[in-house]
Amino acid sequence: MRKSVIVTLIIIGGALIGLAVAYNPYMKEKFKNLGFANNAKQEAEDLQKAKDLLYNGKPDEALSIIHRHTGEIEKQTEVGQQWMALLIKANVETLNKQQLLLLWEHSPQAFKDNEVASLMVADGLIAGARGKDYQKLREPWKGHETKPEAWFVLDADELLLDGKRKEAIDFLNSHSFQGKADTDRLIRLALLNVLEQPKIAWDYLTLAYTKDPENPDIRSFRAKILETVGKNNLALSEYVAAVQVAPNNIYLKDQLAEFYLRHKQYQSALQVWTENLNAPSIDFIWLKALFWNKMITPVKYDWQAAKIPDGQLKPLVEYILHLPQGQFWDKAAFEKISNGSQYTKTQQATFWLRLLSALKNQNDKEALNLLQYNPFAPVSWDPQLETALRRILQYRVHGSFDTASVSNPLEAHPNDDTQSQAEKNTPPFFAQLQELATSTQPGQSLRIPEDLQSVLTSPEAFTAAFLAAGWAEAAIELHNATVFPSTFPDWVALDYVKALRQNSGNADALDFAHAQKQTPEMVLLIGELDIASNNTDAALTDLAELAKTDTDIGAKAAWMISLIYIDKTKYDEAKEVILNQPRLSKEVLGQETLARIALLEGDVEEADSMYSAIVKDSSEAKSYLARKAFQNKNWKKAKELTEDLLKQYPNNALLRENLKKIEEQQKGE
Fold it and tell me: What digits encode the pLDDT tens for the residues 196-224?
């Protein structure tokens, strides 16, 4: 079984699922002579030490020694060939498929006795749609395979590369293997059916799981199927499980991050990538972490001190790393990158950086042109944001929302308006633009609400768009005004304050918030910032009048005040605030807080009564009563309540552990 994630290079109905990683057919970076030992004795000692480190499972330490002898590898001496063999082995152990590809391109003969390394290179060649190179690697191994099951699946992948889907399926069904060896074949058959027949695909994966329950690839592809059919919570559980099974597999971690990205959980995606920047890392992990660091939240990482991994993307990573704060693109510096134009065709990050640069420089026509001819439109990281930006720019440049004339011919879909799934999560700002674009007939005069008109004609229009999309740092970098115009929709200032809070801290967010129009929502947000800054006295002052209003915001303000009083152990004042608020006292939130106060006051009977009254609608009540039932050995009730909680929070590991303990106790009786 290959250690790396099996390349998702499945053709369904003639189309590729996922993007194959493109590898350069020639070596981009020559070996650099970093210096080598002064004498044969020292070299022999280093050679043995590197072997021992590899034997003891320390490939990173071995690599640090091997890299000191790249001069011998470059010369291809007899000793150099030994170092090359160790270098290949170390990269196999660190799952560095990209480095293995570069090594194979430099010295294919060095792989003739290493089948595992050859399989990893073969996997990369298939991923890069390099069928001829795959045949070049494959031919010497025919009839000499010790892992025929792995080559079998790669041979099927080559058929898929040639567009021979039926032949690939027939080939996969022509032979099976015993036990775990059959896993890859079953996974491939599952993926070939994932869109057209997901139930059959799931059956293949189930069979594979029974043969190899510890295989992370199975969990990974189960996740893909679940995500395809909209079972996102279950899909996340499978992605996480795959990483847990193979914690050193950086490709599985990247899949988890990409899942978060697709579902706009940007902070979680960025966290996964950032946690994997240190060696052994891969250049594409650095590119993703660095790009989203500029778009979402600057991460605390010493970019300058760390070593960028070798690979095709290293020059692009270095370029982005050296862009000054607040600058998205430097045309002159980019043109100095050798063969840099390839990145504008293969790396979506370059498109967004160029687009943001045009928007920041208020070059609307250039931005509109970039959007019209975006080669990454079919796989856009945010198609809703792209559509919204096109509409804003079309209105600013041409005075209409008719984007037909500037629609991207490369888009995989004719119009985002037809995407029902996307519509479910459309930000209100984008939905408003969509309504204007679809309801206005050609030649009909536009009827634009005053607050929307104010935004669209302002330099802050793009700040608003990126705020709506959740690209917080990009929005901050595009922003210029000290105070948003009072004619703007209220959400713009609110979302900007939240972005500042996320990326710059409470102090900057508070300063900006106090300067804006003081709507009830803004006052509530200021109160939250006061509390987060441990300035509870200021929060009490800010929220006092708001808490008296018979509104949802008033109820939230009163609840926040009650929490302050609870923290100060002023329980009577906390209860008074809740009971005097018309809405809060009747809401579950208010009842939960009153029950909590009863517990703090030692009135367990009152707390039990209050939690029991709201248990149907309160997860807090379920949790409390489940814990009490467990203590009283009422296993049936404890299990029912815990199962109810798991329906709400399917990925909660603590709840799953609690349920396991309850079931163990039941069995023990």
Answer: 888 899 999 999 999 999 999 899 989 98
Cα 648 from Cα 637, distance rounded (Å): 17
Please report where in the chains the tokens 């052994």 appear, as a residue: 280
Q: What is the pTM of this model?
A: 0.76
Neighbours of 401 (CB within 10 A): 21
- CB-based contact 33:71 (threshold 8 Å): yes
**Alpha carbons 234 and 237: distance in angstroms, whole number:** 5
Q: Which of 489, 526, 490, 492 is nearest to 507 (CA)?
A: 526
What percentage of the chain reaches a pLDDT higher than 70?
A: 90
Mean pLDDT throughout 317-332? 95
Do 59 and 93 form a contact (C-beta atoms < 8 A)? yes
8-state DSSP, 651: T
CB-count exposure of residue 135 (10 Å: 0-12, 13-18, 19+): exposed
Query: Which DSSP helix (H) or strand (E) runs through 661?
Result: helix 653-668
| Amino acid making up residue 228 | T
Backbone angles phi, psi at 641, to 5 degrees: -70, -40
Q: How far is CA 606 from CA 18, 335, 345, in A?
A: 56, 72, 66
Q: What distances in angstroms separate CA 166 from CA 18, 32, 170, one per listed residue?
A: 20, 46, 6
d(CA 214, CA 245): 7
Is the peptide bond prior to 280 cis by the omega test (within 30 degrees of 0)?
Answer: yes
Partner residues linked to 496 by β-bridges: none
- Interior angle at CA 331, CA 325 and CA 332, nearest 5: 100
In degrees rounded to 5, what are phi and psi of residue 530? Answer: -60, -45
pLDDT beyond 90 at 157: yes
Quick one: pLDDT at residue 404? 57
Q: Residue 472 — φ and ψ, nearest 5°?
A: -60, -50
Strand ranges (E), 302-458: none
Residues 530-558: what's their mean pLDDT? Answer: 96
Residue 15: strand pairing partners? 12
What are 61's strand-pairing partners? none
Residues in the chain, total: 669
Q: For 468-492, what is each residue's pLDDT tens digit?
A: 999 999 999 999 989 999 999 999 9
What are 119-139's pLDDT values in tens digits?
999 999 998 889 999 999 999
In 275-363, alpha helices (H): 283-295, 314-321, 331-335, 341-346, 348-360
Q: Coil, strand, or helix at residue 304? A: coil
Q: What is the pLDDT of residue 444?
A: 63
- Average pLDDT, integer, range 80-98: 89
Shortest CA distance to 473 belongs to which of 620, 356, 313, 636?
A: 356
Q: Rounded CA gap, 472 and 174, in Å?
A: 52
Q: Which residue has the tokens 């498929």?
A: 97
Q: What is the mean pLDDT of the chain?
A: 88
pLDDT at position 63 is 86
Please give the Cα distance from 368 to 393 (Å, whole number): 6
Give me the amino acid identity at 310: D
Flag whether pLDDT at 603 surpasses 80.
Answer: yes
